[in-house]
Design goal:
With about 350 residues, this protein is α+β, with helices and mostly antiparallel strands. Helices cover about 25% and strands about 25% of the residues. The longest helix has 17 residues.
Length: about 350
């Protein structure tokens, strides 16, 4: 085990090791390289119209743009729950919050250890103290409760304001996309006005009127034209994933000799997350797979810009993470109760 534990120690000091591990994957729709994919749609606000997130460069008619397919936050929310799977569950404490009859794993909480769900539970004081320790330079208490918060980043914005950067980030973008539109029409199975359910006048007024209760409830023809129809990525689709070893060096502990043990543990979790094959299904109309005609890139990137091939497999990562978690001592798994009173008191607080 000693040899396995020290395998990546040169990465943990920040002296001669790489600054980051970087993965580049070329993706394509399951339908083929010229298939249509559906990016996420965002609500409008703050002066932005909403819809697809497409950044343009110069004349958009020339197709010079970048379209967001899956954001850093969305990718993290897809990856992090892997640690509840049987193969990886023993690597971290399984913290489950009981809300009524519902059991919610902390891995599913969007703000991780800083989420209101766990902040208003039996763990409130313990987490508060762990975040206070993080501010003072000791990340070990938080690693005993929510280590993936140190892997995917956390900000206790509603309480202590403690913050730790994201170590593993992943994003998927499509390049030089052509926007598509689509049209559809709902046709009710019968003409309800013929059966005196609604009058012919009310039915006629409701057709195509999205605000009409008859249209909203499916009693009349309801056409939809010119809506989002996906995009075709003429410049390809790429997933960029990074493990920032430079940020990992920021991890500290109260006892100096525990720092290396903590860094090994968090590095192991980060490597497991980084190297796990991506799920191909993102959303309806967006099913992506590896492009077999493009090379997969995985590099160690050094401070001087050198890029050396990285050879860590997912199996290697799991083996290292298992040894590192045993040496660190994984925190205890718990099911804790959500406290309604704590939640009500929480909303009364002011920063």
């Amino acid at each position: 085990m000693g040899e396995t534990l020290g395998k990546y120690d040169s990465w943990l000091t920040g002296e001669d090791g790489p600054a980051a591990l970087v993965i580049l994957e070329h993706l394509m729709p399951v339908e083929g390289i010229d298939g249509t994919i559906f990016p996420p749609t965002f609500a409008g606000g703050d002066g932005l119209p909403g819809g697809y997130n497409i950044d343009t460069f110069g004349d958009d008619q020339d197709g010079k743009n970048v379209c967001l397919i899956d954001s850093v936050g969305s990718q993290a929310n897809r990856i992090e729950p892997m640690f509840s799977e049987s193969r990886y569950a023993s690597l971290i404490p399984q913290i489950v919050v009981l809300v009524g009859d519902e059991h919610v794993n902390l891995l599913e909480a969007g703000h991780r250890a800083g989420d209101a769900l766990v902040r208003c539970s039996e763990l409130q004081q313990e987490l508060h103290e762990a975040f206070q320790a993080l501010i003072k330079g000791d990340a070990e208490p938080l690693a005993k409760i929510a280590p993936t918060s140190l892997v995917f980043g956390v900000w206790d914005s509603r309480d202590t304001h403690a913050k730790f950067p994201r170590l593993v980030s992943s994003v998927i973008r499509a390049y030089d996309v052509r926007r598509m539109t689509r049209g559809a029409v709902y046709i009710p199975p019968v003409d309800y006005s013929q059966f005196d359910v609604f009058s012919e006048s009310d039915t006629a007024k409701a057709v195509g009127n999205k605000k009409s209760p008859l249209a909203q409830r499916g009693f009349v023809h309801n056409p939809a034209s010119g809506t989002h129809g996906g995009v075709i990525a003429t410049g390809g689709i790429r997933r960029h994933a990074t493990l920032s070893l430079a940020a990992l060096h920021l991890l500290r502990t109260r006892e100096e000799d525990r720092a290396i043990v903590l860094r090994r543990y968090v590095l192991g979790l980060a490597l497991v997350a980084l190297t796990k094959p991506m799920s191909s299904y993102l959303r309806q109309g967006c099913n992506l797979v590896i492009d077999p005609d493009q090379s997969h890139e995985f590099f160690e990137v050094y401070r001087d810009g050198r890029r050396e091939p990285a050879t860590i497999s997912h199996e290697d990562a799991v083996e290292f993470a298992s040894a590192a978690s045993a040496a660190f001592g994984v925190g205890k798994s718990r099911t804790v109760q959500f406290d309604k009173k704590k939640a009500k008191d929480d909303v009364k607080k002011k920063d």
